[in-house]
Amino acid sequence: MTENMILAENILQALAAGLLVGCLYGLMCTGLGMIFGIMRVINFAQGDLMMLGMYSTWYLFTGFGILAFMGAIIGPIVAAILAGPILFVIGYYMHKFLVAQVTGIRVAGSEGEGHYAQLILTLGIALILQNGGLIVFGSEPVSIRTPLSSSAVILGPFWGDFVEVFVNKARLVGAGVSIAVVIVLFLFVTRTRIGKALQAAADNSEAALYMGIDVDRAYHIAFGIGTAVTAIAGGLVATYYPFQPYVGLEFVIVMYAGVVLGGFGSIIGAFWGGMIIGLVQQMSTLVLPIQLQNTAIFVVFLLVIFLRPQGLFGRNVERV
Amino acid sequence: MGGSFTKSLGAFALFAAAYVALVFLAPDEYYQLMLTLVLVWAIMGISWNTLSGYSGLISFGHASFFGLGAYTVVLLQVYYGLTPWLGIPLAGFVGALAGVVIGLPTFRLRGHYFALAMLAYPLALLYIFEWLGFQEVAIPMERENPAAYLQFSDMRAYALIALALLACAFVAVRLIESSRFGMSLLAIKQNELAAEGAGIHTRKWKFYAIAASGAIAGVIGGFYAVILLVVTPPTVFGMLTSAQALIVTLFGGIGTVWGPIIGASILIPLAETLHAELGNVLPGIQGVVFGVAIVGVILIAPEGLFWKVRDLLYRRRGADAGPAYTVSDVPLIGERRHDLSGRTMLEVKGISKAFGGVQAVDDVSFTVPEGSIIGIIGPNGAGKTTLFNLLNGFQKPDKGEVLFEGENIVGLRPSAVCQRGIGRTFQVARPFTRLSVLNNVLVGAYVASADDDTALKHAREAIALVGLEGHEDRIAGGLTNIEQRLLELARALAGQPRLLFLDEILAGLGSSEVNAMIAVILRVSEAGKTILIIEHTMHAMLKLADQFVVLDHGSRVAVGKPSEVVRDPTVIEAYLGKKWANRA
């Protein structure tokens, strides 16, 4: 193999990994996009809710017989998807009893329109979930090992007999499921009655209220869905990535970077934002040491909020 | 102000004396260390408060400064043998520098984005320090002369040094609080645009704040390294470091130097004790305590214990704030002579501004003679407020000139425009709600006052001019609508403007209140101020303005005496539609 071939192989390998990880990040970001992009709630606990999604998947898979019943290949996917409804309920009530107390009409006109209260409240929730997780789940990293985690599809060779790309099967399946979930979510929001109510409530809560939409409930549901979607993404990540109760911190910046990059109020935008972050993270390994992978994300994140805070796909006009 | 400063120093002296007693009563090293940690986090909270508590820019990244301070001290000692006695002051310098470097790009952001960007810095630094190979750096033991290297076998020495550091931080922050620095930060917190409009150079003060805040955090981070002995990136750059600074402050009380002290005194011993008692069974109990504390505080007492208690005491003492303002307090002035003969004070030449495809202001020109009252009128959406924003620097026109006393002021910051002698009020009254009436106006007075005594004099004059004497000590948040508008007018006047922009100052007032406000505006005019006023209801303006400039869809459609303008068909069309114009 020549040096060019090695380089080409490395680039293709990073590209493939970036695309697959990007799909999963895209799904996570779509979940946060429902919350941050549509409702404008900063939720610091999103990463930790994702952590709950990972542990839910793990317990469903190992503890509730899904492994025995569905086998090691379909089982984890089913468990990840089932984590969605569980986290929906948690998200719904977390919003109803905590977040809603400091958002919406209740706090209109207070300092910063209640944004600071949200930031700090969700930070508190994040601390409780992280450290409560430590108490309940322990600090030992766990992972959902399946036959897929350690096997790969080999693409190529692309250049003579060389330049082959290994694609981890667990990531491949995860990416496929991610795309399916995003499509279902998109159809739900744009085609169903309740989805349209959510959009109306997000667009102009006051007008929606006058049109007879229960805006409070719509917000609880949107928060629940956002949580559930991120939790499913977490469950899928868990099939190839070992995790512990602090894992949320690693992903919370990824998610915000993706959502900001994608622009507000757009589900598809958030997905592409996450995709770009995934690509940046994986491609950065070509030029940066592996420990600085996440630093690359922070740099991109900072660049985006400095240069284009309205996102690549969004528009934002400030009024004096 | 001087009185309350001495009083708080006295209170601090009492606190310090009690604390020293506590340190010497503590049964063993464990409790002495805990007492030291309380002070460390109180100081860290004060650092956070200096930026976020006063200016309202919420930082989730104070671990950056703390961690850089810690590594400055430990690396200097490991590689250059420098004693922490010198390393800690240097750490303060590094913290201040880091503050300025981080502030340079980050102050362009507001609200959510500022908080998120600040979160990213310490996490990035964490990875960078790990990558640099500083996973675990230990302070070398100095056996020869330990005291010269800030190493004591008696734990109490550290507690006393921490107390001395707290005293320094306390005095520094009290000085900031009671000066124009602190007032400016409070104004920025309440409303950055209003502050800028009141002549406060917001960017400059924010840099001072982040530098001061970074310095305090750097110093205490350096000190923490000394008592910790081993520095690792997660302990100093970790999320919990930033969170703890914020939590002790919010719990105790945001925006007051006592907040972090109260918060740390309660939360740190609580968390440490629980950790010691239950740490084996419940490993994350500290974090849970902090989480629960902050969730509880934000739901029950969103500004912290200090303010909650103060509000309760204040309410119990009842309304000792003096009588409410009544409309009849304002003496009416007779009919106004329409005089447009003064020299030209403001000349607007062909000013335009488009947002996307919408031409908000289109080639508007007019002049404002000295001593006149000019009314800019037009229906909703005519571009009036945009025009104001262009005139005093909140937005930059696409083309055109604004000449104030012959000087082109296009491109100046709003605070610079204000310094030139143009004051403004906002469409939505934005008092600084936690401040008294006097302090609200004082914030506006700083721009034109070299020293604080002059500022106080200007503030009192402005309050007298709008008729709010006797209300100086009331808290602005409790004022009625007209009082808030008068307050805002006084705040603008206190900056000694020669030209005053009033943006819909009559909006939302009842008819008797409108008359009172008109009387006040006339009195301000009598006092020699030139006034440019925006209003969309025309009839109140008939009594007030010497000349109307009528806008519609961003263009100037008429200029003239009020009595002429109201008969102008184009004006009637703009307000009422074509049908009515034809009948007129």
UniProtKB/TrEMBL annotation, chain A:
Q: Which GO terms describe its biological process?
A: amino acid transport
Q: Which GO terms describe its molecular function?
A: transmembrane transporter activity
CDD domains the record matches: TM_PBP1_LivH_like (cd06582)
Q: Which GO terms describe its cellular component?
A: plasma membrane
Q: Sorted alphabetically, which keywords does the UniProt record give?
A: Amino-acid transport, Cell membrane, Membrane, Transmembrane, Transmembrane helix, Transport
Q: Which InterPro entries match?
A: ABC_transp_permease, BCAA_transport_permease
Identify its membrane topology class: Multi-pass membrane protein
**What stretches pass through the bilayer?**
12-37, 49-67, 73-95, 116-137, 170-189, 218-241, 253-279, 286-307
Q: State its location(s).
A: Cell membrane
Q: What is its main location?
A: membrane
What does the similarity note say?
Answer: Belongs to the binding-protein-dependent transport system permease family. LivHM subfamily.
Q: What is this protein called?
A: Branched-chain amino acid ABC transporter permease
Q: Which organism is it from?
A: Acuticoccus mangrovi
From TrEMBL, chain B:
Recorded protein name is Branched-chain amino acid ABC transporter ATP-binding protein/permease
List GO molecular-function terms, semicolon-separated: ATP binding; ATP hydrolysis activity; branched-chain amino acid transmembrane transporter activity
Which Gene3D superfamilies does this UniProt record tie to the protein?
P-loop containing nucleotide triphosphate hydrolases (3.40.50.300)
Q: What family is it from? A: Belongs to the ABC transporter superfamily.
Keyword flag Nucleotide-binding: yes
Which InterPro entries does the annotation name? Answer: AAA+_ATPase, ABC_transp_permease, ABC_transporter-like_ATP-bd, BCA_ABC_TP_C, BCAA_Transport_ATP-bd_LivF, LivM-like, P-loop_NTPase
Bilayer topology reads:
Multi-pass membrane protein
Instruction: Give TM segment ranges.
Output: 6-26, 33-51, 57-79, 86-107, 113-134, 155-176, 207-231, 243-268, 288-307
Subcellular location as annotated: Cell membrane
Give the UniProt keywords, A-Z: Amino-acid transport, ATP-binding, Cell membrane, Membrane, Nucleotide-binding, Transmembrane, Transmembrane helix, Transport
UniProt cross-references to PANTHER family, sorted A to Z = BRANCHED-CHAIN AMINO ACID TRANSPORT SYSTEM,ATP-BINDING PROTEIN, HIGH-AFFINITY BRANCHED-CHAIN AMINO ACID TRANSPORT ATP-BINDING PROTEIN LIVF
Principal subcellular localisation of the protein: membrane
**Residues of the ABC transporter domain:** 346-578
